[in-house]
Design brief:
- 2 copies of one chain form a homodimer.
- Chain A is mainly α.
- Helices cover 72% and strands 0% of the residues of chain A.
- The model of chain A has no long low-confidence stretch (mean pLDDT 92).
- Chains A and B meet through α1, α6, α8 and α9 of A and α1, α6, α8 and α9 of B.
- The first copy, chain A, binds a DNA duplex through α3.
DNA sequence: ACTTAAATGATATGGGCGTACCATGACGGG
DNA sequence: CCCGTCATGGTACGCCCATATCATTTAAGT
């Protein structure tokens, strides 16, 4: 057998380069040539490891989604078994907001794919929405712990969890677009958490 | 002078076609050829009326922004001089949410441009954010009318106005992406209005 | 050391794009 | 009536892209 290379490592090198290219110039800029140049390899190699362009874009999307999911999970487990709901909601909100360069870049890439998905291109799967659904479930779980768990409040809890999720997503977009600063976004997140859980207990 | 044509009419025909194309296939699909075919004219004509591609895309963006601003203004003036704040917030929120096909298409086009703006393309101006800023001011104005107008509540009012705006924008994205139905979005909007103004008075 | 398949490079091909250029039809003013 | 100019069509050029094909290097197993 000839020179053996860890395919996962190569693929990672390529998707990392692709993410940088997408952050700089959007999905359109993510051409084979640009990514190959960014990764310091030949165009042929990118094709060799990903085949068609669609699979390549899918692989890059996967790398971002998994990175965000991993951070989300880490933050969540760092909270321990029975975290204060107020702290929990703030923490998981902040985990998904683009408050530093790393998260900002990931959010940018994700936004690029979501925009592509809006525009009819079936090549981007609905997988992009999974983080949102997970966020709704997690938020609902923590909100529930601070309320009467009666059956009539269940609808209200679900509604608040969805509102929380929509707001986090909206804040993310707002920060990315430059409408809100990261500091202001954090303030708004905290305020929302207080609103949802009630300013007093929690 | 030869056959005279109303340039505004022609430009409108073209931007309308462009909007349809963008709704179907995103900004990338808005090529001269595709738009010309959609409008039933030759490629040359599109260039003739818009010159370069950048100006053409800018013109199409303008048409959408103006349409949304016009609807927003109409709804706002339809409320009369001193509308109930609760009604006012719901109305202006609904005016901007993609609750029917027309608003959905406009929101889709706007989202496409916002995504392009995120991706470094300087050709798309920050003008896209103007509706958000206007929404913040208008929302703050109505929220203020329902609260003590003391100087210490001003910061809270501004904060709630921004939250309201972020939520409307987030809901718009959520509906476009298929995460929320239009009905659910309307529910969430109403719930948010109640939250901001207090469920009781207003 | 020789084989063999994996890993990489170089280059060709066909298509779509924006843009520039040339040609021509239409029509109102002289 | 006819001329100059607006309006429009057709087309060619150059670029970049995704993809395919051919060629070459590399090193593990025998």
């Amino acid at each position: 057998m000839p020179r053996l290379v860890d395919h996962e490592v190569r693929r990672r090198q390529i998707t990392d380069a692709a993410r940088r290219v997408i952050v700089r110039g959007g999905l359109d800029a993510a051409t084979f040539q640009a990514v190959a140049a960014e990764a310091g390899m030949s165009v042929r190699l990118v094709q060799y490891y990903f085949g068609t362009k669609k699979e390549f874009l899918l692989g890059t999307l996967d790398s971002v989604v998994h990175a965000m999911a991993a951070r989300f999970t880490v933050e969540l487990e760092g909270l321990g078994a029975e975290p204060e709901p107020r702290v929990a909601l703030r923490t998981i909100g902040r985990a998904l907001l683009p408050l530093d360069d790393i998260r900002r870049d990931e959010a940018k890439v994700l936004a690029a794919y979501q925009a592509a998905r809006l525009s009819g291109s079936q090549s981007v799967p609905a997988e992009t929405l999974d983080p949102a659904a997970l966020l709704v479930r997690t938020a609902a779980e923590h909100i529930r712990r601070v309320r009467d768990d009666g059956p009539d409040t269940r609808a209200a809890t679900e509604l608040d969890a969805e509102l929380f999720t929509v707001l986090v997503a909206g804040l993310s977009q707002s920060v990315l677009s430059g409408f809100h600063s990261t500091e202001r976004a954090a303030e708004l997140l905290d305020h929302t958490v207080d609103r949802v859980l009630g300013s007093g207990g929690g």
